[in-house]
Specification:
Layout (H helix, E strand, L loop, with lengths): L1 H41 L1 H20 L2 E10 L3 H17 L2 H6 L8 E8 L3 H5 L7 H17 L2 H6 L1 H4 L5 E8 L4 H12 L3 H41 L5 H34 L4 E11 L8 H30 L1
Antiparallel strand pairs: 1-3, 1-4, 2-3
Helix pairs in contact: 2-12, 10-11
């Protein structure tokens, strides 16, 4: 009986202690909230000044906007060359080598913050080039992708450096502080990228070969038209009862029409190829001076006030803690 009474007394004591601790914790939270309110009330003037100063500085910093200029290029057999040149420019940019940039015709290099190149992932065109001359290469590309995907994740294969460098289009992005002029930076950059004797010679020979093939195809089309005219005249002279001759000549005409259409399609593809190899690093599209709002760009008017106020609060808390500890020590 006495044991049960003692246990009940202990439980009542424990519950009482727990209630006191909860009440004390609640009071401590309320005191902390009140102290925070009191701190902001006492320091309202300083906090207001810090907010105004931070916002003012933020607006001033945001006036110097950051821009991205994108150049989409199609390297004709010079992908590794292109990437090595961009790496060289990036290293010279890090060193702020104005002499180098002036030597390649870029006089506003101080505006350039960064330059990078990355492939434009286009797996469909990589394995399905529309020109008939590329059918063998299409099959080879597809087999390579298929083989790599068997032992790796397909997304990793698509973005792998070995695969991505073989995509037809690549994006060069120039990050700059303030707007840049195409004549001062972009055009000299493209001229520099296309300044290679070996690749220029290859490009020249490729153009000559295409022009020769086009001329040959055009001559064949003229010959086919002449033959079709002759055969058509023969058909009109034939007796309608001579079905065997008529059918034979008719099939020959169909074959010639098919060959003519094939040659016409080849000439159309060759004209496109001539445009593509005008330069061995062909600029496909240029989009200059797009405002860069990624990261903290354009957001300093919000970041700086918060940063200044946070630093002030942290320093004030540290000083209060240090003063309190010093008092206890004394």
């Amino acid at each position: 009986m006495s044991t049960n009474s003692q246990n009940n007394d202990n439980q009542e004591i424990d519950l009482s202690e727990i209630s006191k601790k909860i009440g004390g914790l609640y009071d401590a939270v309320l005191r902390s909230i009140f102290n925070v309110i009191l701190f902001f009330k006492r320091k309202a003037l300083i906090l207001g000044l810090l907010f105004i100063i931070g916002a003012g500085l933020g607006f001033y910093v945001d006036l110097n906007k950051s821009y991205n200029s994108q150049i989409i290029v199609a390297p004709n057999g010079g992908v590794d060359y292109l990437y090595s040149k961009i790496d060289l420019i990036k290293s010279r940019l890090t060193e702020r080598d104005k002499t180098f940039f002036k030597s390649i015709g870029i006089n506003d290099s101080e505006k350039i913050q960064n330059i990078k190149i990355e492939p434009i992932v286009d797996l469909y065109n990589f394995v399905n080039n529309s020109t008939s001359a590329a059918s063998a290469q299409n099959t080879q590309n597809f087999e390579v992708i298929k083989l790599l995907a068997e032992s790796n994740d397909i997304n990793k294969v698509i973005e792998d450096e070995l695969t991505s460098k073989n995509y037809p289009y690549h994006s060069i992005v120039i990050s700059s502080e303030g707007r840049i002029k195409s004549d001062n930076i972009i055009k000299p950059l493209l001229k520099y990228l296309n300044k290679d004797d070996y690749l220029n010679e290859i490009s020249k020979i490729s153009k000559e070969n295409i022009l020769i093939k086009m001329k040959k195809n055009e001559e064949e089309i003229v010959q086919i038209d002449s033959l079709i005219t002759v055969i058509s005249k023969n058909i009109s002279k034939n007796n309608k009862s001579n079905n065997l001759v008529y059918n034979n000549e008719n099939s020959e005409i169909n074959a010639m029409f098919e060959l003519k259409n094939k040659l016409i399609n080849e000439i159309a593809s060759q004209k496109i190829q001539l445009v593509k190899i005008e330069n061995f690093i062909k600029d496909v599209s240029i989009t200059p001076n797009v405002i860069n709002n990624k990261g903290i760009n354009g957001k300093m008017k919000l970041i700086l006030p918060i940063l200044f106020i946070s630093l002030f609060v942290l320093i004030s808390l540290f000083l209060a803690f240090y003063k309190n500890q010093s008092t206890k020590t004394e």
